Amino acid sequence: MTFVQKIQELRKEKNALILAHFYQVPEIQDIADFVGDSLALAQQAANTKADMIVFAGVHFMAETAKILNPEKLVVLPDLNAGCSLADSCPPDKFEEFLKQYPDHTVISYINCSAAIKTMSDLICTSGNAIQLVESFPKNEKIVFAPDKNLGGYINRMTGRNMVLWDGTCEVHDILSVESIIKMKTQHPDAKLIAHPECKAQVLELADFIGSTTALLQFTSNDPAKKYIVATETGILHKMKLNSPEKIFMVVPGDETCSCNDCPYMKLNTLENLYNAMLYEKPEIFLPVDVMYKARKPIERMLELSLNLGLIK
Ligand code: 13P
Ligand code: SF4
Questions:
Q1: Spacing, Cα 110 to ligand 1 middle (Å)
Q2: What domains sit in the chain, N to C, each tagged with a CATH number?
Q3: What are the distances in angstroms from CA 253 to CA 141, 153, 174, 264, 306?
């Protein structure tokens, strides 16, 4: 039997839900019950009746699923699937940082640890960040963490001046502006689409900016035939499936790295996903008080997103 067949069997036997992010390898996306961006994945996790959640993504995503389902078994195929952005915001340093801004509302991007979530008033994702920030009065004092690129983008789009934590994603932050300019010159008919975790110089050049879901929807509905894609390579799988006639070109990193695969997302394989389902580990565990505190800003995000019509 292949891993695909064995996973299909176990999924029924264990009443398991397989959630996968768009940055997963194609074979995992193809076997998942649901593939989506961080917002949709959190919503799926919040609404599931499954006994077991198999998270084909990174640690903060599986943690979010556990926080929303403290009684359920949540497994991540490889516990080393972390996130450089989440790691760029250590809880002890963030706690000290917040002491300088006692009267500020704390909005954190979902790419952060459960400990950071406990210190946050509201969680957001790249799919709802602008609208959630806009839901606060113009003069609201806000600290935004951990992604300074996403935070800077929101500041520019909303005319706000949120205080930004100095964190970045190691994959998006190194996408090369020089390469993009070269690619745009070589392919004047191509549109540049970018994830808001990219640095400002990249976003300034972009024809469209959005979450992974928004980027995918854009390429499916837009009339152009060619795209320069400034995000992680995994998204190309669904882009090509949805628009087989179109050409998608990835942006290389700077001179320190020529690849834009997320090394954490790519730790998951069909084999370790199968083993995680079979042996029910590595399991995500969190202290009860952490789950209780971290749940509030996540639920607030889901509720606000629903009220604003950003999710159904
Ligand atoms: P979204 O899929 O929510 O846009 O997030 C991108 C990302 O970097 C996840 O780690
Ligand atoms: Fe984290 Fe960046 Fe990988 Fe997303 S792409 S999981 S933000 S390191």
A1: 9
A2: 3-80+265-285 (3.40.50.10800), 85-168 (3.40.50.10800), 175-250 (3.40.50.10800)
A3: 35, 20, 5, 16, 36
Give the predicted TM-score (pTM) of the model. 0.96
pLDDT tens track, the chain, 312 positions: 999 999 999 999 999 999 999 999 999 999 999 999 999 999 999 999 999 999 999 999 999 999 999 999 999 999 999 999 999 999 999 999 999 999 999 999 999 999 999 999 999 999 999 999 999 999 999 999 999 999 999 999 999 999 999 999 999 999 989 999 999 999 999 999 999 999 999 999 999 999 999 999 999 999 999 999 999 999 999 999 999 999 999 987 766 666 789 999 999 999 999 999 999 999 999 999 999 999 999 999 999 999 999 999
Cβ of 111 less than 6 Å from ligand 1: yes
Q: Is 244 exposed, middle or buried (0-12, 13-18, 19+ CB in 10 A)?
A: exposed
Q: Whose CA is nearest to atom 6 of ligand 2?
A: 83
The alpha-carbon radius of gyration of the chain (Å, integer) is 19
Please give the structure tokens belonging to residue 71: 């009684």
